[in-house]
Design goal:
This protein is about 45% helix and about 25% strand. The strands form two sheets. It has a five-stranded mixed β-sheet with strand order 3-2-1-4-5. Strands 8-7-6-9-10 form a five-stranded mixed β-sheet. β7 and β8 (about 185-190) form a beta hairpin. It is of the alpha+beta class. The two termini are about 10 Å apart. The longest helix has 25 residues, at about 125-150. The protein has two domains: about 5-115, Nonspecific Lipid-transfer Protein, Chain A (2-Layer Sandwich), CATH 3.30.1050.10; about 125-250, SCP2 sterol-binding domain (Nonspecific Lipid-transfer Protein, Chain A).
Length: about 250
């Protein structure tokens, strides 16, 4: 069974944490929040806490809930995960008078996110949709890797073998991120690193999409040179082991 605490961290920082990327890439999402200046906090008992800050079309996430205008509290990780999968409806503990933002803006925003993360073959025929969907998915996957390495039993075992340093992960010509290991704790950053110890590079956004969708075998892609790896190979190997766990949690 999926570890509910690990899933809660993934849902917080990888799923909800991809909303800023969605707003950056998708005009429909930006337009939805273009008039809003508000912050929405999520507090999970014995689990993650974070705030989405909306600022007239842009959005970013910060850890903690100290300065949120609206606060949603969850007594268990299972209940928070239930909100993400649509089986639990939370009631604000703070900002009840601002509940219309939840109903009219935040929920439609999550619907847009779901549309891009659960894209159909027909959707992906549109090049712009394809690009946005793949970039948002890349954001989700890289963040999920860090959360799995920090919280999942199998992921933590792999992280315990990762030496300190940066692993760069990139889609050539499209997107770059990196995962920092420090004392076997992983942190994902959604930008290009100044320096890196190891790297994993997908030759194109089309190949990255096929890998994400399981249409291409990663080992075969490395053999064909479609995925390039380098640097400290033991780092890449253990990061890859964690990557293998992502589909388990996101399926």
């Amino acid at each position: 069974m999926k570890d509910q605490k690990t899933l809660a961290y993934i849902n917080m920082f990888a799923i909800l944490g991809s909303i800023p990327k969605l707003c950056k890439e998708c005009k429909e999402a930006r337009d939805l929040i273009k008039d809003d200046k508000i912050s929405l906090g999520f507090s999970v008992k014995n689990g993650p806490q974070a705030t989405l800050v909306f600022d007239k079309g842009s959005c970013y996430m910060v850890e903690g809930v100290k300065k949120c205008n609206i606060k949603l509290c969850f007594s268990t990780c299972e209940k928070f995960n239930g909100m993400i999968d649509g089986t639990v409806t939370p009631i604000p503990r703070k900002g009840l008078l601002k509940v219309m933002f939840l109903l009219k803006k935040f929920m439609p925003l999550t619907d847009i996110l779901s549309k891009y993360l659960r894209a159909t073959e027909e959707d992906l025929k549109d090049k712009e949709f394809f690009n946005i969907s793949t970039l948002v998915m890349f954001n989700v996957i890289t963040e999920a890797m860090a959360q799995i390495g920090n919280h999942d039993r199998v992921g933590k075992a792999s992280a315990s073998y990762i030496t300190d340093g940066n692993v760069k992960i990139e889609i050539t010509g499209s997107e770059s991120a990196y995962i920092t290991a420090k004392d076997h704790i992983l942190t994902a950053y959604h930008t290009t690193p100044d320096t890196f110890t190891s790297y994993m590079s997908f030759e194109s956004i089309e190949l990255a999409r096929d890998l994400f969708d399981g249409k291409v075998n990663a080992v075969a892609a490395v053999g064909l040179g479609q995925v390039r790896v380098g640097g400290m190979i033991s780092m890449v190997d253990n990061v890859n082991r964690i990557l293998d766990r992502v589909s388990y949690y996101l399926a």
